[in-house]
């Protein structure tokens, strides 16, 4: 890991590190030895590794010992600062564990969070305002051809547009 500090290009290292950085990354059986966690944290810091954040399932490994279920986050993705500069839109997703004791990690290098348009909600208080009443009436007026559902949707779009303006 010492070599990682001298590499001046973007890189990513992922896999089963068989260790945790925090006690909340383990569930079941006894807590991990604090010295072991400390040594792993020190190695990460000394090597200037950055632990990439993830979405998805919390634990990446499930094991059963003596009929006790043990869950841990021992699979991780580390990178260097150059990686974050070059691939700032990287998104990790820990996928569910199926057919193995470890779950796959999905890495999207060009994640683009698509925000859905805000849903329009009619406020009953608008009916108390005379201007709003006129806008609503204007939105419902007019002939639109098509099925009842189609006409309803078109009128809702029209009066929404008028209210937002």
Order of strands across the main sheet: 1-7-3
Average pLDDT taken over every residue? 84
Order of helices and strands: EEHEEEEEHEEHH
Largest sheet: 3 strands, antiparallel
Principal-axis shape:
elongated
How would you portray this structure in words?
- This protein has 165 residues and is of the alpha+beta class.
- Helices cover 28% and strands 21% of the residues.
- The strands form 3 sheets. It has a 3-stranded antiparallel sheet with strand order 1-7-3. The chain has a 3-stranded antiparallel sheet with strand order 2-6-5, with no helix packed on it. Strands 4-8-9 form a 3-stranded mixed sheet, with no helix packed on it.
- Helix 3 (130-140) runs antiparallel to helix 4.
- The longest helix is centred in the last third of the chain and has 17 residues, at 148-164.
List the helices and strands and how they pair.
Layout: E1 12-16, E2 26-27, H1 34-46, E3 50-51, E4 54-56, E5 61-65, E6 68-72, E7 75-79, H2 81-86, E8 91-94, E9 105-108, H3 130-140, H4 148-164
Parallel strand pairs: 4-8
Antiparallel strand pairs: 1-7, 2-6, 3-7, 5-6, 8-9
């Amino acid at each position: 890991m010492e070599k990682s500090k001298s590499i001046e290009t973007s890189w990513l290292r992922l896999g089963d590190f068989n260790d945790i950085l925090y006690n909340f990354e383990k569930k079941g059986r006894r807590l991990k030895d604090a010295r072991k966690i400390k040594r792993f944290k020190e190695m990460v810091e000394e090597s200037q590794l950055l632990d990439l954040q993830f979405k998805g399932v919390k634990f990446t490994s499930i094991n059963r010992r003596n009929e006790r279920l043990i869950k841990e986050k021992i699979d991780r993705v580390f990178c260097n600062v150059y990686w974050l500069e070059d691939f700032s839109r990287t998104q990790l997703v820990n996928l569910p564990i199926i057919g193995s004791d470890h779950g796959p990690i999905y890495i999207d290098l060009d994640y683009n969070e698509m925000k859905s348009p805000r849903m329009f909600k009619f406020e009953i208080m608008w009916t108390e305002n005379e201007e709003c009443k006129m806008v609503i009436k204007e939105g419902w007026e007019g002939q639109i051809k098509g099925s009842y559902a189609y006409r309803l949707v078109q009128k809702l779009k029209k009066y929404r547009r008028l209210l937002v303006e």
